[in-house]
Amino acid sequence: MEPPTGDPLMLFAREWYESLCRGQIIITLDLKDPNGRAELDRLLGKADLLLASYRPSALRRLGLDWENLHARFPKLCFAGIIGYPAPNEEKSGHDLTYLAETGLVTPPELPSTLFVDLAGAERCVSEALALLLHAARTGEACCASISLYHCAEELSAPVNAGLTSRDGVLGGGSPFYGLYETSDGWIAIAALEAHFAQRLMAELRLSQSDHATFTHVFSQRSAAQWEKWAEERDLPIVAVR
User: Fold this and answer.
1) pLDDT given at position 166
2) Average pLDDT of 41-68?
3) In what order do the strands lie in the sheet containing 77-82?
4) Can you give the pTM of this predicted structure?
5) Strand partners, 81
C-alpha cells in the first residue's frame, strides 16, 4: 500500500523500485480520507499481517496502533518499523544518521549503500515470519517492533570489537585481507583462513608475508589477470569494480 504521493524510491531509482515491486499488488490509499481508511479496514479484515513504517504517534492518530488493531482484528499480526527504540521512538532519523551515530561513517565519504535500510528489511522478514509461525501454531496474533537504530548498532559490532579498525585483522592489520593496487586498478584479497593464506604464499613463491611485499608483487599484473590467476587456484581474490 502506498500514499497518494507514491513511494519516494520511485522518483529516485525507478528501475530498482519496479524490481522490488515485481509480483506485488500495489494499492494507493489516502488514510486521512474516510473512504481510504474504510478500504484499509476491509483489507485488514482479510489479512494475516500488517507491516507499517510510522511513528507510534502517527499510528495512534490513525487508529492503527497495536491495541486498537488487536481489539478490532484479533487474528491480525503486526510488525512496526521504528527508528529508535523506546523511549525515543518518536525521534526522527534515517539510514545516514543511524550509521553516523554508531560510528559507521567516515567523513567526507557517504556510505556506499543503504546498510541500515537493507538490514532492517531483512529483520522485518524474520520478525514477520516469526509472528506468522507463532500465529499458525498457537492461534495467537502478536506484534513486533523493528528498530532501525538497533540494526545499525548490530552492524557496528565488528567496529566495536576492533576487527575492522585500522589495525584490526579485517581493517588492514593483516596483509592477507585487504586491497592492493595492480598495474591498472585494484584487487581485493580475503585469504584470511590458514589454508588460503598458505596456498597464496605457495603459489606466489613467497617466504615473507607483509604489506610491502604484497604491494610490490600485485603491482606487476592487471586486476583481471590476478582475478583469473586466483580463480584457477581457488583463492579469494577479485578485481574491484
Assistant:
1) 84
2) 96
3) 49-52, 77-82, 143-147
4) 0.88
5) 146
